[in-house]
Amino acid sequence: MTATTADLDLSVRNAAALWTALADARGHTLLHRPGFLAVLGDDRAGLRILLRDPDPAPDDRAALADLVRRRTGPVTVEDQYASVDLTDLGLTPRSMPVMVRRPAALPDPSLPVTPVERPDQLDTAEDVVVRGFPLDHFRPRRPGEAFPAGLLARPEVRFFLVHAGGAPAGACLTVQDEGVGLYWMTSLPEHRSRGVGRALLRGVLGRLGDVPMTLTAARAGRPLYDSLGFVPVTDATWWG
After folding, report:
1. Residue 55 — φ and ψ, nearest 5°?
2. Within 10 Å of residue 236's Cβ, how many Cβ atoms?
3. Nearest Cα to 123, choosing from 105, 106, 143?
């Protein structure tokens, strides 16, 4: 399978759907501009900007720079097009691959994978992601801060848990737009290198695998995604 420009556009739309849902659930201001989407979070969530155009207009560039200069808390600018240079704003780039997978059959997972449907399950998933990913800016964890209970009422957002030995071992979040975006897929340190991530991803794909799935891969996770049929689309630049 060869990735296309349409796959990159799909990944950007999936990310926009994610941050729209999170901003609404967290009560954060969401700013829509032609060239980017921005979530104006608090001191812990910080500022999150997603570029939606590989060549933002000058007024969009100026607005983005103003937001970064007035930032409160952490800043992340996600540029999946890898098309802007933000070093003059004091930000540092890192590169991560964007990947896509077309629908295809997979074996059943080797561990039980559970869709999150109740607040107590969401609390567990939040704890696993904050500790396992980790989401350092949400530590120490305040229950419901990263993933408020209101997300359970959003049909496009789904969380999944995987258990090993009866204990929560991994979790992830998916958001469905025209395709499905996979985010914050992680396992707890004590369960790593034991097939937990593979079981979790197989379980998610088994439930949501009838449409293309996109993700941004941490380098350590790339071999797993390669082995389950994901292919690289491009190398995104994340500024922080």
Report:
1. -135, 75
2. 23
3. 143
- Phi first, then psi, for residue 157 (nearest 5°) are -105, 130
Strands 75-79 and 47-51: parallel
Please check the confidence at residue 229 and state whether its pLDDT lies above 70.
yes
Tell which residue, 240, 239, 219, 234, has the closest CA to residue 80. 234
H or E element in which residue 233 lies: strand 231-239
Q: Which two tokens stand for residue 207?
A: 């439930």
Look at residues 109, 211, 108, 110 and name the one whose alpha carbon lies nearest to residue 158.
Answer: 211
Indicate if the alpha-carbon torsion angle 146, 149, 154, 158 is positive or negative.
positive
The Cβ-side half-sphere exposure at 159, using a 13 Å CA radius, reads 29
Q: What is the pLDDT of residues 124-181, one digit of tens each?
A: 999 999 999 999 999 999 999 999 999 999 999 999 999 999 999 999 999 999 899 9
State the average pLDDT for the chain.
Answer: 96
Q: Give the residue among 92, 162, 177, 99 at the shortest CA–CA distance from 132.
A: 162
Q: Name the strand (E) or helix (H) holding 180.
A: strand 180-187
Task: Indicate yes or no: pTM above 0.85.
Answer: yes
Q: Is the Cβ–Cβ distance between 160 and 171 less than 8 Å?
A: yes
Cα 194 to its chain centre, rounded Å, is 23
* H/E stretch holding 19: helix 5-26
